[in-house]
Design a protein that fits this description.
The protein has 264 residues and is of the alpha+beta class. The chain has 2 domains: 3-147 and 235-248, no CATH class; 151-233, no CATH class. Helix content is 23%, strand content 38%. The chain has a 5-stranded antiparallel β-sheet with strand order 5-6-7-12-13, with helices on one face. A 4-stranded antiparallel β-sheet has the order 1-2-3-4. Strand 12 (238-243) and strand 13 form a beta hairpin. The longest helix is centred in the N-terminal third of the chain and has 16 residues, at 3-18. It comes from Dyadobacter helix. This is DUF3945 domain-containing protein. Residues 223-264 are annotated as: Disordered.
Length: 264
């Protein structure tokens, strides 16, 4: 068995968010030297069940194995249906398990990405549940830096107590960039109110929920209610298509009427 290859894969799996509980399965499969193999992983984020299948394949010219992709199935709390998505692994642009969970949950994730020329750029990723690719995966949209969403600016417009402390501010920003729904304290009329917030790059805002997870603020809903939503102000987001760890801009396609797919 190629010990260095095993150690590399073990670390790749661990730092992709699957922990170190798959080490024994990984070693056992590599020892058998199959052309390809899969290992299973189960966890939960809150009350949502998350099941993943990690797929590995041996090189056609060496004894090295590669972590090709993982298929994640999420069963939201109180839902009988599962939502599935495959995330491809490669040298760059990899999405961790928690980031994948957040994307499937409808939240945006901020990533440093690498284009085909090898240049690094930053963008927010968001899943498009209205369009799927040939493999049945939901496409990913991206909002570049020049799109106009400034997370720091939007946070500054909200009465968040934790922003008064630089360390807490950085923790909140880091959490939101990972796609998390973050618990914060609002200072309102001299009282403290618990609120949940999440980044909403498409509408250049931060969405706010009350303690019961009811949405109480979103720039999108304000624009619609005031009748000032202007489509010309929203530049179209680029679309990311995952394939062997790479992302590229997808060609423009006519929209089709399609219900949300829950299986591949």
């Amino acid at each position: 068995m190629n010990e260095k290859n095993f150690e590399y894969l073990r670390d790749q799996v661990k730092y992709s968010g699957f922990g170190d509980g798959l080490e024994a399965q990984l070693r056992e499969n590599i020892k058998k030297q199959p052309l390809e193999f899969s290992v299973q992983h189960q966890t939960a984020f809150g009350k949502d069940e998350v099941t993943s299948t990690l797929n590995f394949k041996r090189s056609s010219i060496t004894d090295m194995y590669f972590f090709n992709n993982y298929q994640t199935s999420i069963k939201p709390d109180k839902s009988t249906e599962k939502v599935n998505q495959t995330f491809y692994m490669g040298k760059d642009n990899n999405i961790t398990l928690k980031e994948g969970y957040n994307l499937i949950s409808g939240r945006a994730v901020n990533k440093d990405l690498t284009n085909k020329e090898g240049k690094i750029y930053n963008a927010w990723l968001e899943m498009d549940f209205k369009q799927t690719d040939a493999a049945g995966n939901f496409r990913l949209k991206q909002y570049h830096q020049n799109y106009g969403f400034d997370l720091n600016k939007e946070l500054a417009s909200l009465p968040i107590k934790e922003l008064q402390n630089n360390q807490d501010r950085e923790r909140i920003i880091d959490s939101l960039q990972k796609g998390n729904r973050q618990l914060v304290t609002f200072l309102e009329n001299g009282t403290e109110q618990r609120r949940h917030i999440e980044a909403n790059p498409q509408f250049k805002s931060v969405t706010v929920y009350d303690a019961n997870m009811h949405r109480i603020y979103c720039k999108q809903s304000q624009q619609v209610s005031r009748g000032i939503a202007n489509k010309s102000e929203q530049k179209p987001a680029d679309e990311l298509v995952g394939g062997e760890g790479e992302y590229h801009r997808a060609p423009k396609k006519p929209k089709k009427s399609k219900s949300m797919s829950i299986s591949q």
